[in-house]
Amino acid sequence: MLMTTNKPPPVDDRDGMPEAEAAALYRLMTWLSPAFPVGAFSYSSGIEWAVEAGDVADAASLRDWLASMLADGSGFCDGVVLAHAHRAAASGDDAALCDIAELAAALVPSRERQLETSAQGRAFIDIARAAWPCEGLDQMIAACGGAIVYPVAVGLVSAAHAMPLAPTLHAFFHALASNWISAGARLIPLGQTDSQRVLAQLEPVVVATAKRATAAALDDLGSATFRADLASMRHETQYTRLFRS
Predict the structure, then answer these.
(1) Which residue from 176, 175, 186 is spatially nearest to 48, judged by alpha carbons?
(2) What is the pTM of this model?
(3) Backbone dihedral region for residue 136 (phi beyond 0: left; psi -120 to 50: alpha; all else: beta)
C-alpha cells in the first residue's frame, strides 16, 4: 500500500546555499536582469549607427564588434570603474569614491553615452534604494557629490549590501553584453538562437575582461575602440533612430 504525505522530503543541507549567499545571488540576478527598469533597452551604445554604416551586418560581425567593446573599449573601462567604486565604498573611503565618480563621468566620450550611463545610474540607485533600503547607502551616494554613472552605481550599491566584487563584476558584464546583443538583434535583425550563440561566444571575453578589470589600476583606464566611439557620436545626428544612443 502506497503512503502519501504532505510533508516534503528531507533536504540534504550540503546541497543548500548559505542564506546570505542566496540573498546576494537573488539581488544580483534581479538588479542586473533585463527586467530591472533602468531603461537599458532604449540604448544601443552606438551599435545602431554601426548597423546603419554596415560595420555590423550579421551575427559574426556583431560578435566581433562587441568583443572589442568589451575587451578594449567601454566594457573594460566600466569594469575598472565598478571595481574601484566597490572597493572605495566597501572600505568607507568617501574621498576615493568621490574621485572615482567624477573620473568615470568625465571619461564618457559622447553626449548620448553620457545620457545613457548617467540615466541608468540614477535609475539603478533610485530603484534599488526604494526596494532594498540599506544602511550606509545614502552616505555613499552623497559622497559621490554629483552624477553617478551606471558602473559606479552598481559598484557602490553592491558594496553597500556586502556583495563580493567578483560575482558582481561578472553579472554586470553579462548584463552589458546581453543588452548590446538585444540591440543588435532588433537592428540587424538577428534570431533568438543566433543571439544566444553570440552571447555564448562572448563568454571567454567576459571572463578575461573581468579578470583584467579586477586587477587594473585607474591608470590602466583607456580605450582603443575608436570606431565605436565615433559611432556613438555619429548616432547623435543619424536620420532615423530606434535607440537613444
Answers:
(1) 186
(2) 0.92
(3) left
